[in-house]
Amino acid sequence: MYYILKKRKIFKSKIETYYQKKVTYFTKKNQLSQTISFFQNKMNSQEFNVFLRERSLNFWKSQKGKPSNIMMYTGIKVNGKFEEVDGKQTQFQFSDLLTQLGVYNETIIRGSDILFMEFPSQKEKN
């Protein structure tokens, strides 16, 4: 019981930190769902959209230079290093893209051609 109360106290202090213009991101799934539902209730839709957009951009920024596995819409699997995404998240730039036809040093792939992307974690590699 004490551990749960302590967690709630920490969670509450992190939300207060957000309102002091210091954005805090949560990594645990249960805290993330609580945070999103809290923000939906406390913010208007425009503020909430800004919050989600910022999280999205920070995610793409954190993935820069990391290897990724890409499943194309046609069912072809390719591998490469993720480099950048455009502002509308419709085009993705990769380097050292390994395809069935060879290796491309730099390439841009349309988002509509990608079925999904995977970014293997360090735990999966070891």
UniProtKB/TrEMBL annotation:
InterPro entries hit by this protein: SMN_gemin7 (IPR020338)
Gene3D superfamilies registered for this protein in UniProt: 2.30.30.100
GO biological process: spliceosomal snRNP assembly
Parts forming coiled coils: none
A Pfam family that the UniProt record links to this protein: Gemin7
GO CC annotations on file: SMN-Sm protein complex
PANTHER family membership: GEM-ASSOCIATED PROTEIN 7
Protein name: Gem-associated protein
